[in-house]
């Protein structure tokens, strides 16, 4: 067993260590260690695409948030990882999150001692930074997770994720879609919709930006998507659906091991009438199957929303996300989500903004949300 550490200010987190009994040391990821970190993540069953070291670059260069990617080392090897980023916001407060702008996070790998060591380091860091709260975005409930102990961790059942096994045969995947939704996909096929892999943002970004604007949501900067493609390379792909020569829907998706994660998607105003959005997700599924993927991750949605119902209509069962929060300086968790009535007026006003102005202002707001 490791010894409980006394309070500390983590003065040596970059690149220092915190020696512990049983040779567990918590270190801060350095730039030259990305390959080592990713080798661990790739082999760790509970790790996700959002545990990859490239997100350190996205946090720091894309959003200008300080990153604190912690790993526990034991016997000279990485035994567990915990990616964190510090979100400072004048609008929404300060938080230490694993991981902002990502649907999954938290501690991956390790024995109970390793996870406790990482959790203690994260809590000490949160106190030193003076954040409002510390947040772990667990994908699955873990009985041995550090926050399961009675230590005033809070839960907020707001999101669910939707993950489904793919058949090796594409036709079997099509037949697995419930009949009504499958009919929409077949209608889109009959209408001649087709897909292609894009190698730039020229079609994706205008479609995505207009789509989120109609939802009343600030958009990410174009450079965010360019950076994602630069950092993750072939594991970050843009799929666009066309009706003739007209692009009607587009999605930026991630590949991780044998999974595909369509992550940022949108459709034009014509997409609903032609079924382009539905066809886009089918094409993502079909192409991923051909690539050898065996799991389709439809991503998270807020419970009780239209997006949640849409994914249920595809035959995906919601899996509640057990995000955990520990208050540090805050007295209550901020309700930063579109379901909060406080933001209803903002959403209506944002929809009325001219699209070019929304695209200009959006990136400055969205980087504060996390």
Give the strand order, joined by hyphens, for the main sheet. 10-11-12-13-14-9-15
What is the CA-atom radius of gyration, in angstroms? 21 Å
Give the rounded overall mean pLDDT: 89
- The percentage helix is 25-40%
Strand content is: 15-25%
The top-level CATH class of the largest domain is Alpha Beta
What's the structural domain tally? 2
Q: Main β-sheet, in a few words?
A: 7 strands, mixed
Order of helices and strands: EHHEEEEEHEEEHHEHHEEEHHEHEEHH
Could you name the CATH topology of the largest domain?
Aminopeptidase
Structural class: alpha+beta
* CATH architecture term of the largest domain: 3-Layer(aba) Sandwich
Number of helical regions = 12
Low-confidence stretches: 1-21
Query: What sort of overall outline do the alpha carbons produce when their principal axes are compared?
Result: globular
Task: Calculate the terminal CA-CA distance, rounded to whole Å.
Answer: 35 Å
Pfam families: Acetyltransf_6
Domain BioF2-like acetyltransferase: 180-312
Protein name: FemAB family PEP-CTERM system-associated protein
């Amino acid at each position: 067993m490791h010894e409980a550490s006394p309070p500390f200010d983590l003065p040596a987190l970059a690149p220092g260590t915190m020696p512990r009994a049983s040779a567990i040391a918590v270190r801060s990821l350095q730039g030259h260690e990305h390959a080592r970190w990713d080798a661990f993540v790739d082999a760790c069953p509970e790790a996700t695409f959002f545990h990859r070291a490239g997100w350190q670059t996205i946090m720091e260069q894309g959003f200008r948030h300080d990153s604190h990617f912690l790993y526990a080392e034991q016997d000279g090897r990485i035994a567990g990882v915990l990616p964190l980023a510090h979100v400072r916001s004048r609008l929404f407060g300060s938080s230490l999150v694993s991981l902002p702008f990502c649907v999954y996070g938290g501690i991956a790998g390790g024995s109970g001692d390793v996870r406790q060591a990482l959790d203690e380091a994260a809590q000490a860091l949160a106190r030193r930074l003076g954040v409002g709260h510390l947040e772990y975005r667990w994908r699955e409930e873990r009985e041995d997770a550090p926050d399961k102990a009675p230590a005033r961790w809070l839960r907020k059942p707001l999101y669910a994720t939707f993950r489904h096994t793919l058949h090796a045969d594409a036709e079997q995947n099509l037949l697995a879609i419930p009949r009504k939704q499958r009919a929409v996909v077949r209608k889109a096929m009959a209408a001649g919709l087709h897909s292609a892999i894009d190698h730039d943002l020229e079609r994706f970004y205008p479609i995505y930006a207009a789509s989120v604007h109609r939802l009343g949501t600030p958009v990410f900067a174009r450079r965010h998507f360019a950076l994602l493609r630069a950092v993750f390379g072939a594991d970050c792909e843009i799929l666009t659906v066309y009706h003739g020569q007209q692009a009607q829907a587009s999605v930026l998706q991630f590949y991780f091991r044998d999974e595909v994660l369509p992550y940022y998607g949108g459709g034009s105003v014509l997409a609903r009438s032609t079924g382009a959005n539905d066809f886009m997700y089918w094409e993502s599924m079909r192409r991923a199957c051909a690539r050898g993927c065996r799991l389709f991750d439809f991503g998270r949605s807020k419970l009780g929303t239209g997006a949640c119902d849409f994914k249920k209509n595809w035959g995906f069962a919601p899996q509640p996300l057990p995000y955990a929060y520990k208050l540090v300086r805050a007295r209550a968790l901020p309700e930063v989500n579109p379901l909060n009535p406080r933001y209803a007026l903002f959403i209506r006003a944002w929809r009325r903004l001219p699209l070019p102005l929304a695209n200009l202002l959006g990136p400055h707001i969205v980087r504060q949300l996390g």
